[in-house]
Amino acid sequence: MKELQERIRAEGQNLGDGILKIDSLLNHQVDTRLIMRCGEEIARRFRDENVTRILTAEVSGIAPAFATAYALGVPLVYARKVKPVTMYGPVYLETAPSHTKGMEVNLLVSAEFLPANERILIIDDFLASGRTLKGLIRIVRSARSTVVGVACIVEKTFENGRQVLEPFGVRIESLVVITNMEDGRIVFADE
Amino acid sequence: MKELQERIRAEGQNLGDGILKIDSLLNHQVDTRLIMRCGEEIARRFRDENVTRILTAEVSGIAPAFATAYALGVPLVYARKVKPVTMYGPVYLETAPSHTKGMEVNLLVSAEFLPANERILIIDDFLASGRTLKGLIRIVRSARSTVVGVACIVEKTFENGRQVLEPFGVRIESLVVITNMEDGRIVFADE
Predict the structure, then answer these.
(1) Interface-testing mutation among B54, B72, B76, B86, with chain A (most A C-beta atoms within 10 A)
(2) Identity of the residue in A15, A62, A109 whose CB atom sits nearest the CB atom of B63
(3) Maximum CA extent, chain B
(4) pLDDT at position A97
(5) Which pTM was predicted?
(6) Which CATH number fits domain B2-188: 3.40.50.12280, 3.40.50.2020, 3.40.50.2300, 3.40.50.150?
(7) Domain range summary for chain B, segments of one domain joined by +
(8) Integer CA distances (angstroms), A100 to A126, A161, B7, B85, B161, in order
């Protein structure tokens, strides 16, 4: 997605260790018009898949997942990391390491919002190590629903998330692909 | 907002201790079409205020704040509760007690996304004790910007948030007002 790539080129910061800061667009400040167009683009790519529900993980997945769910007209469910008092009854639970927080986090989804036999599109901001997305895929399969695909805003190929997800055999779409962040650079796949 | 009130009447659950569960609409599953209409209604009420930026707190404020920011065409900034590695440089920091998590949480906003002389509308899902909103107001004023108002999806008047915010002299708008949740009931202000 050309527009997004240009914005990342202009505003993204390479913080080292493969960490890309796009806090002006998505992860702290949100350009809602841009993110809505990202959601529309993801919706367009999965238009023929009869998606019935979007699943993401709080916090940074919520904005692009909201935009995609709105474009497709389906409910959004976001995995919680800390159980709120309003969550009771059976939950699906996986754990995943957080790249930007340096600890293991929970992914919690109430069974009541993840029925069986749904066609679920999983969204996240980044495809990096793939481990959050792997946790979400496992949750959907535990619920006996189908993962129709995984979509992310930015894929960093050098962190091998695509390989981590390969055994699950799900379609993966990324709006922008970054292949190299060594030596302070941000190299896009089409360069 | 009649539509929202009817949905809360149908789907909301009174969990006792003043806790209203609306996880099917907003706090775990999100009805993005409904929340977008909520954002449009908030935008309508503040249309003449020259809002330049929306501020909310993660996690549950993000969806209605996204919708409002999109309707107004202004950036959204959400206060983080845990500092991610991408956050560096000066931050505004307040603390607030979390009603549904039973602990004190941080509210962190990077100074780079909260410049001076902005006209900021603060959004949250609930106006309950008012203490998260109070923290956000203090952050905006620390940044020498103006709070043009506070808007929330649901106000619970019996938790006195409006009185807590009164000293700040800011306009407060709520889409649905609940006056009583004793004895398992959910009583709306217009009843």
Answers:
(1) B86
(2) A62
(3) 50
(4) 87
(5) 0.97
(6) 3.40.50.2020
(7) 2-188
(8) 11, 15, 37, 5, 34
